[in-house]
Design goal:
The structure is a single chain. The chain is of the alpha/beta class and 220 residues long. It contains seven helices and eight strands. It has a five-stranded parallel beta sheet, sandwiched between helices. A three-stranded antiparallel beta sheet has the order 3-4-5. Strand 7, helix 6 and strand 8 form a beta-alpha-beta unit. Helix 1 crosses helix 2. The relative contact order is 0.20.
Length: 220
C-alpha cells in the first residue's frame, strides 16, 4: 500500500478525529455526514469525539457518460450548485441538465427517506455543524450542502474531509467558518487516489454505522 494513502474510510476518519478533538463532548456540536461515502468517515469521528452524527443528503450532478465529473450538486433543503464552466465545456444542453436534475432529485428524496425516515433537513439552528465527506474533488457537492445549511442558521459550519483538491479548497474556504483537510494531493486526479480501499458503501452499511455511532445517545 502506498504509505501516503489512507487504508480505508474508517482509517481516514480516525485521523480526522484527532484534528477535531477540540469539539469533543461539547454541547451544541453535531456532525452531518454526506452519504454514502462520508458516513464511515464521520462515524469514526463521532465515536472518538462523542458527538451525535446525522446525514445531510447531497447528490452530485454527473456529466452523462462521465459521471465522476460533477457539473453541479443538489442538497436537502433546496441547496443547488451548477458549475456552468463544466456544463458549457461538456456541451450539456438545458434539456439534458434538467433531465439529470429531475433524476437526482428523485434519488435525493429516496435517500432522505431511506436514511432519515423522512424528507427535509436535520435540526441545525444555532448549532456548530461539522460537515464530513470522504473527499472533495470539484467541491460542488459540499458547496451545495453548505448553501443549504446556511439557510438553516447554524452557529458555525466546519467542513472536514480527509482529502481534497486545492482548487476546491480555495473555492470553499470563503463559504465556511473553518475547513480541515488532511491531504491535498498534487496533482489531484480523484478522491479514490488517497485510499487503499475505496469500496462502495451500501444503504444497509449506512444504517448500521449510524445506529452504532448514535447508540450512546439513545434514550433508555
Amino acid at each position: 500500500m502506498n504509505a501516503t494513502r489512507f487504508r480505508d474510510r474508517a482509517h481516514a476518519g480516525q485521523l480526522l478525529a484527532d484534528q477535531l478533538m477540540p469539539y469533543a463532548g461539547r454541547a451544541g456540536v453535531m456532525i452531518l455526514a454526506l452519504p454514502r461515502g462520508g458516513v464511515p468517515v464521520a462515524c469514526e469521528v463521532a465515536n472518538k469525539i462523542n458527538v451525535r452524527v446525522d446525514v445531510l443528503v447531497v447528490r452530485k450532478l454527473g456529466v452523462p457518460g462521465w459521471k465522476e465529473l460533477a457539473m453541479g450538486a443538489i442538497a436537502s433543503g433546496g441547496g443547488r450548485v451548477i458549475n456552468h464552466e463544466v456544463v458549457h465545456g461538456s456541451g450539456i444542453s438545458m434539456g439534458i441538465l434538467e433531465t439529470v436534475l429531475s433524476r437526482e432529485s428523485e434519488e435525493l428524496e429516496r435517500r432522505e427517506l431511506a436514511f432519515q425516515g423522512h424528507t427535509g433537513f436535520p435540526e441545525v439552528k444555532d448549532r456548530i455543524v461539522i460537515v464530513i465527506d470522504d473527499g472533495m474533488a470539484t467541491g460542488s457537492t459540499i458547496k451545495a450542502a453548505v448553501q443549504a445549511l446556511r439557510q438553516q442558521a447554524p452557529a458555525r459550519i466546519i467542513v472536514a474531509v480527509p482529502t481534497a483538491a486545492s482548487d476546491a479548497c480555495g473555492m470553499l474556504e470563503p463559504l465556511v467558518d473553518d475547513l480541515l483537510v488532511l491531504k491535498r494531493p498534487d496533482p489531484f486526479r480523484a478522491v479514490s487516489q488517497s485510499y487503499g480501499d475505496f469500496t462502495q458503501i451500501s444503504d444497509a452499511e449506512v444504517h448500521h454505522l449510524l445506529a452504532k455511532a448514535n447508540a450512546p445517545f439513545q434514550i433508555k
